[in-house]
Amino acid sequence: MIIKGRSIWTIRKQVQVNKACEHCNSFEVNAQIKIPYYHIFFIPIYAIDQKEIRFFCSHCNAYYENGQLHKELNYQPIPWYLNSWKIGLALVLLPIIIGITMNLLTSNKPNTTASSKEVEKPIISSGQWVSKLFLERLERTKDPLLAQDDAQILIINASNQTLNFIYGLHEGSGDYKIKLNNGNYEYWGEKPDSGDSIKYGQFTFLPNGNIFFENNEYVKFPGEDAAEMVQKLVNRIMEGQYVDSTDSKVEFYSNKQMKGLFDYDTFEVAFDYVGDDTPLPYVFLKNKQVEDAFMFEFSGDTLRLYQPLCGDSSVSFLNCDQKLKGPLKITLIKN
């Protein structure tokens, strides 16, 4: 049961009034000022701003009301404790206001200002990570020309805490500064038009050592040289044992070595085809005296090598603007 009601509170019991009594003309006139209020469980909640003022004369003991004097004394302030609803509201709103303020102070600031802290937990090892999409497409198609669209390498330099991209196995981005904000690693650079430091994106480290960046996983590879890493990746599609049309064994190894095909002893699969007008990827077969290029394609376990042609016979194959697929030269079937 809620105990509530209305009561009267005396603000001032006796206030000297500098006016003559209306009955005896004595100046011994005083006033009592009271104010009604509502309460719940006898706790004042809300005061009604309509004071009750009565005058009495201590000389003739007369009680009366005076409209003019009532206006003059109505300035008396209402005690704060009679409006405890304001205190309650303040107690409810105060933690909300504090929470919102703290959240605004600690939340991410706009990208147009360099608000993130320098890396508090620095990356202690350098390395390179390659797009998992590129690896999956390369494995599925065995075609580095088709897979290049998904290729991207992340290179982290631990000594200066920077991140670099190699887009499409072709062009580097330049160094971005790594910063830490709310547990996420961000990469920051200068805005071209103003030179202001802005955030370009962020990445996180996965428990397996890989990196999650722009909705894609990047797989870490050992070593410090990105070109060597990519060369090993694309060479993998050739690795294995094959037989040629005479049932002779041909082998491609993981260290670029090969044997069984004429007198070639090393091979390298080309991986950068940006700006290269070619219908197929190509591989270089080498020995100490020669380096021959062959276009190639896989069909299941069958590897076909074609003689490359150029639309302009006066230039070399590598400098050719329009490469063409020539006649089939070698067919190898994987064991």
CATH class of the largest domain: Mainly Beta
- The dominant shape is rod-shaped
Instruction: Look at the helices and sheets and give the structural class.
Output: alpha+beta
Mean of all residue-level pLDDT scores: 82
Q: Which value, in Å, is the CA radius of gyration?
A: 44 Å
Structure description:
The protein is an alpha+beta fold. The chain folds into three domains: 4-85, no CATH class; 117-232, Lipocalin (Beta Barrel), CATH 2.40.128.290; 238-334, no CATH class. 16% of the residues lie in helices and 42% in strands. It is built from five helices and 23 strands. The protein has an eight-stranded antiparallel β-barrel with strand order 7-8-9-11-12-13-14-15. The longest helix has 23 residues, at 84-106.
